[in-house]
Amino acid sequence: MTALFGILAVIVSVAGVVTISYAIFWYEYANRNPSLMENRFSWRNLVFAVRLIATETACLLLAILLQPLGWFNWKEKPPAAFPRPIILLHGLFHSRSSWICLKLALRRRGFTTLHALKLPPWKDVETLTEELAKKVDEYRFSTGLDKVHLICHSMGGIIARNFLQLRGGAGKVDRCIMLATPHRGSKLAPFTVTSLGGLLMPGSPFLQRLAEAPLPESTRIYCLFSRHDNMVVPCENARLEGARNIELFGTGHTALLFRPDIPGILAGLLEE
After folding, report:
1. How many separate helices (H) and strands (E) can be counted in the chain?
2. 152 by DSSP, 3-state: which?
3. String of b and e for 217-237 (b: at least 16 CB within 10 Å)?
4. Which helix (H) or strand (E) holds 49?
5. How far is CA 227 from CA 25, 78, 142, 157, 239, in A?
6. What are the tens digits of pLDDT across the range 112-141?
7. Among 105, 117, 122, 135, which residue has the fewest nearby CB atoms (within 10 Å)?
8. Beta strands per DSSP E along the chain
9. Side-chain-side CA neighbours of residue 190 (13 Å)
């Protein structure tokens, strides 16, 4: 019985966090567009809101359950030159385990050299960028290729941009695909408790440096973002000038990692 209450407490807590994040989301958009108030209690909108919250809650719970798997040192296969190696960068407070479903789906599509990098939230952005740089060079030298691919979620995309734009990564990455990355920050950043989260304050000096630095012409950069992202507020902050931006609908921040059509979209971008 105690265990059952514990499980229910976790589910209720996660659902509460997701609901509060969507309440802030609604506050932001309703203030920007007061006409949204007219149909806020229509059955269609209420069902859509419940589905959004329920799906994001379920996906966040799944990510939490998978979290311990990311703490172990996974045994890696030696990188192969074909297909081109892919390095996965997870988001803030997630772990490498958040990529498990996407990795399986991409492997079924023939992308067999996949490495999820560990990005502990207590380390600073420059230390994490240096770890990415080492892994990129390790794969380049072991395969004889000049470039790798990057796939990033949320904060992982900011680390990738730091590498590409400010830390000498230009020319080492063929494609960089970012999902739900807050390129211009998020209004929810004040709720974070790490120095990494502080970098995501809209208008922060770090984000300004990234905005002022040119994107490398030798790297094809894609940004996938959801109109209904509950963590990147407003969602337009996930767009990146100079990249190919792909807007999706009806998906929350964590749910984007588990959305059924994402592996196909990623495979298409990696092959085009």
Report:
1. 8, 6
2. strand
3. eebbbbbbbbebbbbbbbbeb
4. helix 43-66
5. 11, 39, 40, 18, 11
6. 899 999 999 899 999 999 999 999 999 999
7. 122
8. 86-89, 114-117, 148-153, 173-179, 220-226, 244-248
9. 4
